[in-house]
Amino acid sequence: MSDEIKRIPIKELRELGFIQEINRRLLHPCGLALEVILDKETGEETLGGVWDFRDDPEGMYFGEEVLSADKARSVDKLWYSKTHHRSDNLGYIVQPIEEEN
């Protein structure tokens, strides 16, 4: 891993499908949602906060009209392109958490 940290713009992160998939796969089932705010004057997108509907038994979900299968496939494609290399070089794909004694 490089010492120089590169950053991806939030707009690109959203366009690639990561915001959708973080929400759909992880946060929505827990009743949470990562919010993206669009500055209408500049077009800049920023992370706003996390919506909290944890008290809703079903959690949150997208309306079908806003879900994108292309975005889900884009995230999956990048995920799977990394798995072999991570497994071979690190011994895992998702970093394990050691159990405390």
Oligomeric grouping of the chains: single chain
Q: Which term fits the overall shape?
A: globular
Mean pLDDT: 94
**Uncertain runs with pLDDT below 50, 5 residues or more?**
none
Strand numbers in spatial order across the main sheet: 1-2
Count of helical segments? 3
The whole-angstrom Rg is: 16 Å
Secondary-structure class: alpha+beta
List its traits.
101 residues, alpha+beta, two-stranded antiparallel sheet, 38% helix
In short:
The chain has 101 residues and is an alpha+beta fold. Helix content is 38%, strand content 15%. It has three helices and two strands, in the order ααββα.
Question: What's the helix and strand layout?
Answer:
Blueprint: H1 10-15, H2 18-27, E1 32-38, E2 45-52, H3 69-90
Tell me what the structure shows.
The structure is a single chain. With about 100 residues, the protein is α+β, with helices and mostly antiparallel strands. It is globular and about 45 Å long. The protein starts with 9 loop residues before the first helix and ends in an 11-residue tail after the last helix. The chain has a two-stranded antiparallel sheet. The relative contact order is 0.15. It has 3 helices and 2 strands; from the N terminus they run ααββα.
